[in-house]
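Bench notes, afternoon.
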Amino acid sequence: MRTFVGITYKRMSVHKEIKRITTHTLQEFKQDGIKISMLTAYDYSMAKIIDSAGIDVILVGDSASNVMAGHETTLPITLDQMIYHASSVVRAVERALVVVDLPFGYYQGNSKLALESAIRVMKEAGAHAVKLEGGSEICESIERILTAGIPVMGHLGLTPQSIYKFGTYTVRAQEDTEAKKLIEDAALLEKTGCFALVLEKIPATLATKVAKKLHIPVIGIGAGGGVDGQVLVSHDMLGINKQFKPRFLRRYLNLYDEIENAVKQYIDDIKSRNFPTNEEQY
């Protein structure tokens, strides 16, 4: 057994305390059958809590476009905005691996721009890795980023930056042709040099097949339990968002109602002159 940050894991080989999660740590987790935990964060305060709890990977996702800025899709968020969110997260983190999404328009079809974008994320935000959506179409960009020694996480299946191409958020790779391409792309991303892969909203059997085939860790969201780890958007998992209710989401709290009730009580206490009391003033 091994224990760190208040969490105990079964371990078959090396017994040591992990003070900082790295890409190598994740590879060891896969080899030893230890599931990888991953959540999103976009600000210092949330990242501090999540990191202190012992999360393995924090994703500064372009989902900030939705949950932080209120956009309908992830497409509007800019590289400058992603760097702002990522730098806030990095300042809070002591243990987790921090991975940052490269936003739409900053790596597709232009490997030079992809490298420049990734370098900015690493230098200005202090991130540990970047994540890109897509398969064979973006391998040139991945290769160029890797030449700078920047770790890259891949992302296949439902790729939200391509939502207007798909036209729907339905489960991907249900048909044989798309499933075959996903398997080929996953193998290609590993061969190209990605250290890990996210599979989003695909059949569980397919995700399990990919995870068994690849040597790199495969992290799922809506991809079943046969992969090497799981990722959720923290705002969804904590119940801060009420409208988003996909099948794969498990809510661990209902913070929307908790916060709303607290605010209502605060308002009532002010209106009724119950706040502040004599003990709460100087």
